[in-house]
């Protein structure tokens, strides 16, 4: 039985449905998409008793205003975009109940850039190629393949009632700084740059520009000059790949990146740092630090262990 | 065969098969992808063949970079001396050339030939699908004769309809979905390369071939209607070697 839960009064800057994205279709040119900050999405889901990959609302910088149409348990995680219910500030990283007639809205972005609203039982929306994620460019997934608009109504599946008052331990709640250190594994094309340029990349500060979106973050800093050409024969490009086009200013590939690309990539951001990086606002300063694949995979294991533990705990209660 | 391996962060590995675009390299990549499909490695999520590389995405909590590389090296050894991957298919793409507003006349003029000549050069030959990408379902095709090569339009179109067949430089391709673009559009196929609502949303696959076959407007309409009724099946034939 699906019930109306949210009616959109104001859509916000960019509010879309996202889950873990479309897996297994990249060889056909299908973009992965999915939540930019997968950590915040996972936690938001656990707090309301969902599976980690249930679709959530991704809210960007200026959040929406939602009229609550039915009683439900929700949680808001990720960047602090000043969520309020009926004008009262609500605690993030903690599940709570909303009731018919309430209003959920967002205010000033205080910390981070993206917040995630989970709904106990998830949203009643169709799967497209195994995912509910919205991919705007091809107009697929989510609600009619587009961002939320005024007047849209979102329905819940009603399969899980959820429990309010569940919170992530304070120690585990991430903080998002305006100065970030982002870990990278070098390559695959770092050898097409001189040793000096590689050092410049690793020792300089790069600023996130306003030309940053779900597809990629354009950062600005000391120019990375190619020894020969910026172009390569097109190949698959990964999440976190750092492209260097001919202008020498890096672009970090994010959730909505194309599947293939033809620019040299100096390094790849480790998957464990993608959620954190996703919270960078324009003006945020980034420094890149080289780590080995082994170190990066150790970090992955630690994150994975935490997620599994939380999943277990949330399914027990 | 000795391959180069590069880590792409902590969740990807890139296998490099060569430094130039060739049918031979493409076949090697195709054979490797086929082996991955037939002998799944636990922890491998998906892979993306490209012109000279095969990129494999995996879960580091299931398999480490080092172990995966060893397994892939072993897989590569076993391929040594093997003939080829299984037979390639040729997808037959019925195409109505030169509809109103198309760039067929421009392409003809640019290459000092008649419109019919352009069609004859473009159609009835097999193009290798080197890779897929750019947008959902877009094939990167190789093998277009230089005789009909034409630079992109000076003023790109704001809207190109799905199924449009175009030329950009010495490349030819088909637009799977509506998008802006600068390609010289010479024809259109009613066949859907991309249908997100379908069980198999993407028609084509890299490593196979594609052949344009010229049809008239009536035939175009007929096929379009059949597709709407769900009664059209894209024809394929086995690629003859040599």
From TrEMBL, chain A:
This is Biotin-dependent carboxyltransferase. It comes from Guptibacillus hwajinpoensis. NCBIfam families: urea_amlyse_rel (TIGR00724). Residues 27-306 form the Carboxyltransferase domain. One of its GO terms (molecular function) is transferase activity. Gene3D superfamilies: Cyclophilin-like (2.40.100.10). Keywords: ATP-binding, Hydrolase, Nucleotide-binding, Transferase. Coiled coil: none annotated. The keyword Nucleotide-binding applies.
Automatic annotation (TrEMBL), chain B:
The keyword ATP-binding applies. Its EC number is 3.5.2.9. Signal peptide: none annotated. Residues 3-204 form the Carboxyltransferase domain. GO terms for molecular function: 5-oxoprolinase (ATP-hydrolyzing) activity; ATP binding. InterPro entries: CT_C_D, Cyclophilin-like_dom_sf, PxpB. The keyword DNA-binding does not apply. Pfam families: CT_C_D (PF02682). It comes from the Bacteria. Transmembrane segments: none annotated. Keywords: ATP-binding, Hydrolase, Nucleotide-binding. It is an enzyme of class 3 (hydrolase). This is 5-oxoprolinase subunit PxpB. It comes from Guptibacillus hwajinpoensis. The gene is pxpB.
